[in-house]
Specification:
heterodimer; A: about 180 residues; mainly alpha; 2 domains; flat; B: about 500 residues; 24 helices; about 75% helix
């Protein structure tokens, strides 16, 4: 996806902190595999990789904090940073920190769809592929703004039927049948 | 030779394989054409359905999806000024102005024919170069593989995201994800945290679908409300005269495509941009000024990005090193099918090599057929409202992840990686190095330990040996140069960084 913005959205320093925490934890875990005992131990190479991650995460955090300090607020990192990626559609201009900034990073439509996807996955084995997929498709289409229920039902039913024929019948993929219907 | 020809044409005479080549190319074109849905994503999702198939069927489908996907991105670049894939960014520069002049049909036709020519040049290069590279690769030692893999990750990291540190971070993360489970040499548990599920490791296909598919769809939700733009397309088959007049440029651009595609980490997107730059420099009298609808600006990138496909197969099949993100995904699939890409592939299973070359050639022919037909259907697919399309792709991703081993845990991993990948992309981290790290991690770990053992665990001897072998020294120099070229001091020296 081509980046639409020159600058990353707010929350960069927070994200860099999380990456540093994660990298530190991985380094500690890698050390726990076999310690510093041997240069060819099972943990030697993972430890090296985790150490590289820690160093990189420190660099990100230092840059993000520096940008935040020069901008005066966490959210203004967006305006000051020289980002090289991003997600098209995310407004990267400075905004008040807090809920407003987070809503721009994770808008309600994305949050609700992710929760619907998680619920769909949890329901897969219980309700089975066909029912859970149908319900998820209808719910997700509605959440994304498609209000033509007739069309939504037709597309959802057609898609589930097509997946059943193509994948279960032709590709021999075993789709979850659902424990709920098996008694 | 006759055996090679026999295997080359195997996919051409079997109706099932012909059908799969057609289906793969068709699916690749249409998925690659939808902006935001990358060819890597298409390959990641569709490949997961082939794991239970015989290897030939899977190889044919993969070849079709890859070639079709690289080409498909050009259509939306021409019609909507939105490259369907990074490899089509350069195509939009002159393709869209052509569409604005009412020449969309002609532009699509020309780009199709040039893509097919580029594709064939890449395939010929693969057939000629791969056996030679493979013989040479037999001289590679563990040290060289370690360096080559490191170089590949560095190149992908620096080229795909712009920030080397971000690329390196993601590559190292991929290496760590790949090391989860039992150590293949000592059977010690690594990052399992006492979980039985984790001892089997994390499926890289689930990670691929998560990082490339789910994260992409989540990112697309920011723009779910946007409507497509309808375009008219007319007659598209270009005249022979037009093709002939652009043939020399197409062949030169294809050469660039093959060379760049064969470099570890550099794929069709870089090849297309370099070929466009070459056209601008070498064509003194373009049909129109570049950027305003010059045919040459369309011919060069389209020839190069499809030629890069054949080029990318060379290091993948001969060294086991992916040429780009798509070949990283394909290597993963080959392992699952019991194949080991590398120099021994050509020796142990030469028939599979020639079969792959033949499949690519067949898929390239289908590219010509589908590229010059079905434009109306194409326009309808591109117009599909996102609120309907995005949930459908999510369901396909779930089916793909579940199909790996009929295990719901793979689906959970996919979601986890998808959400994490979304945030990585949001803050400008390239996700391709994660997958490359996952694929190359075990090779690097093994190579490092073999090299260290051969140096009797003496760090100084281990380090010295990098300079005593000419091959290792060359690879080390390439690696160091890649690192240096990303530093601010180097960019200032080259006048690309105005910051003090």
């Amino acid at each position: 996806m081509p980046p639409s913005t020159e600058t990353p959205p707010p929350g960069e320093a927070f994200f860099a902190s999380l990456l540093l925490l994660m990298s530190g934890f991985l380094l500690w875990s890698a050390h726990g595999i076999s310690g510093f005992g041997s240069t060819v131990s099972a943990g030697a190479f993972p430890m090296g990789a985790a150490a590289v991650m820690v160093v990189c995460a420190l660099v990100f955090l230092e840059r993000a904090v520096r940008r935040a300090a020069s901008g005066g607020a966490m959210s203004s990192t967006a305006a000051a940073s020289a980002g090289d990626g991003g997600v098209a559609g995310v407004d990267a201009s400075p905004s008040p920190a807090g809920p407003a900034g987070w809503r721009r990073i994770v808008p309600p439509v994305l949050l609700w769809n992710t929760l619907a996807l998680a619920g769909y996955m949890l329901a897969l084995e219980t309700a089975g592929f066909h029912v859970s997929s149908g319900v998820f498709l209808l719910l997700s289409m509605r959440l994304l703004g498609s209000t033509r229920w007739g069309l939504n039902v037709a597309v959802a039913a057609g898609a589930v039927a097509a997946i059943h024929v193509v994948f279960q019948t032709v590709f021999s993929v075993v789709l979850p049948a659902g424990t709920l219907w098996q008694g | 030779m006759s055996e090679a020809l026999q295997y080359f044409f195997m996919s051409w005479v079997d109706p099932t394989l012909v059908l799969l080549a057609a289906a793969g190319t068709f699916a690749g074109i249409y998925i690659g054409a939808i902006p935001g849905l990358s060819v890597t994503m298409a390959v990641s999702i569709l490949i997961s359905f082939t794991f239970k198939w015989p290897v030939n069927e899977a190889l044919v489908l993969i070849a079709g999806i890859y070639l079709g996907g690289v080409y498909g991105g050009s259509r939306t670049a021409i019609l909507l000024n939105i490259p369907g894939a990074p490899a089509a960014i350069a195509t939009a520069l002159d393709g869209y102005p052509l569409a604005q002049r009412g020449e969309a049909g002609r532009a699509i036709g020309l780009s199709t024919v040039m893509s097919v020519i580029g594709g064939f040049v890449g395939i010929v290069a693969l057939a000629v170069a791969a056996p030679a590279v493979s013989s040479f690769a037999l001289h590679f030692g563990p040290r060289d593989y370690l360096l080559l893999a490191l170089w590949g990750i560095l190149l992908v990291g620096s080229l795909s995201g712009g920030s080397l540190a971000k690329g390196v971070f993601c590559g190292a993360l991929g290496v760590l994800i790949a090391s989860v489970g039992l150590d293949p040499l000592t059977a010690e548990q690594r990052f399992t945290f006492g979980s039985v599920q984790l001892t089997a490791g994390i499926s890289y296909i689930a990670a691929m679908i998560g990082f490339f598919g789910v994260s992409e769809i989540l990112a697309q939700m920011h723009r779910a409300h946007l409507k497509g733009v309808r375009q008219d397309v007319s007659k598209i088959v270009p005249s022979w005269r037009m093709v002939r007049s652009h043939l020399p440029l197409s062949l030169r651009a294809s050469g660039i495509g093959v060379g760049v595609g064969a470099l570890p980490g550099a794929g069709g997107d870089i090849a297309a941009l370099m070929a466009y730059d070459h056209a601008r420099r070498s064509v003194k009298q373009p049909t129109r000024p570049f950027g305003q609808g010059a045919y040459e600006g369309l011919v060069a990138p389209e020839s190069a990005n499809n030629a890069a496909v054949g080029g990318a197969y060379v290091p993948m099949l001969t060294l086991g090193i992916p040429g780009d993100a798509v070949t990283a995904v394909i290597i993963g699939a080959l392992y699952i099918h019991g194949l080991k890409p590398g120099p021994m592939l050509m020796i142990e299973t030469p028939h599979l090599f020639w079969f792959t070359v033949g499949s690519l050639a067949l898929a390239n022919l289908f590219l010509l057929v589908f590229g010059l037909t079905g434009i109306r259907l194409f326009a309808r697919v591109v117009d599909t409202p996102r609120p309907l399309l995005l949930p459908l792709i999510l369901v396909l991703s779930v089916v793909g992840a579940y199909a790996i081993g009929n295990n719901i845990v793979d689906v959970y991993w996919m979601l986890g990686f998808g959400v994490f990948g979304y945030f990585l992309k949001l803050y400008g981290f390239p996700v391709a190095p994660v997958i490359l790290g996952m694929i190359l991690g075990p090779l690097m770990d093994r190579s490092y330990r073999q090299a260290m053992l051969s140096a009797q665990e003496d760090v100084l001897t281990f380090a010295t040996e990098f300079f005593t072998s000419p091959l290792s020294a060359t690879l080390l120099a390439a690696l160091v140069f890649t690192l240096l070229s990303q530093t601010r001091a180097w960019k200032r020296l080259r006048g690309r960084d105005p910051r003090p």
